[in-house]
């Protein structure tokens, strides 16, 4: 089952580049393949380190094309270096741990109700929105608690 998911993601990333009129090159294939293998959010610098045979500019351009195509989500991080994650089909929002950078996804109907309500009060049409909530994740909380009790 995991293989089918990886294959469908692969096809979507490749199709996103095709739809932008970009040629399929071995460098772009390496970038998209590596993205598919990442289970969590990643940075462009991380990909550059993991793909030493691919030019830095190619990594950044490929990521930009995938973000523009809606295949990747760009997540602002508190220190200013963005992270990326594969975009899901359904609309969602993100949590970002301010300590370790772990990224989570959530959906909540209240957010969508607030947006519909705002749409009635805003002069113009809302064409989209996004939300990132900065948190301290449970792993970081547990680590700090164990550090407090151990020290």
Task: Write structural notes for this entry.
By secondary structure, the protein is α+β, with helices and mostly antiparallel strands. The chain contains 6 helices and 5 strands; from the N terminus they run ααααββββαβα. The chain has a 3-stranded mixed beta sheet, with no helix packed on it.
Helix content: 40-55%
- The overall strand count is 5
- Proportion of residues in extended strands: 5-15%
Radius of gyration: 18 Å
Individual helix count: 6
**End-to-end span in angstroms?**
45 Å
What is the succession of H and E elements?
Answer: HHHHEEEEHEH
Unreliable stretches, pLDDT < 50, 5 or more residues?
A: 1-8
Structural class: alpha+beta
Mean pLDDT score, rounded? 82
Major beta-sheet overview: 3 strands, mixed
Outline: flat
The neighbouring-strand order within the major sheet is 4-3-5
Quick summary of this structure?
With 151 residues, the protein is α+β, with helices and mostly antiparallel strands. Helices cover 50% and strands 14% of the residues.
């Amino acid at each position: 089952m995991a293989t089918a998911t990886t294959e469908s993601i692969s096809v979507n990333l490749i199709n996103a580049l095709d739809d932008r009129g970009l040629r399929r090159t071995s460098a772009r294939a390496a970038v998209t393949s590596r993205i598919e293998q990442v289970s969590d959010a990643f940075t462009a610098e991380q990909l550059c380190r993991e793909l030493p045979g691919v030019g830095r500019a190619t990594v950044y351009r490929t990521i930009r094309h995938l973000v523009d195509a809606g295949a990747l989500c760009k997540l602002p991080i508190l220190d200013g270096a963005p992270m990326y994650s594969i975009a899901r089909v359904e609309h969602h929002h993100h949590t970002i741990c301010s300590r370790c950078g772990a990224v989570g996804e959530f959906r909540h109907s209240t957010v969508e109700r607030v947006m519909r309500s705002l749409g009635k009060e805003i002069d113009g049409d809302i064409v989209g929105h996004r939300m990132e909530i900065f948190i301290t994740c449970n792993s970081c909380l547990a680590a700090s608690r164990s550090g407090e009790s151990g020290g």
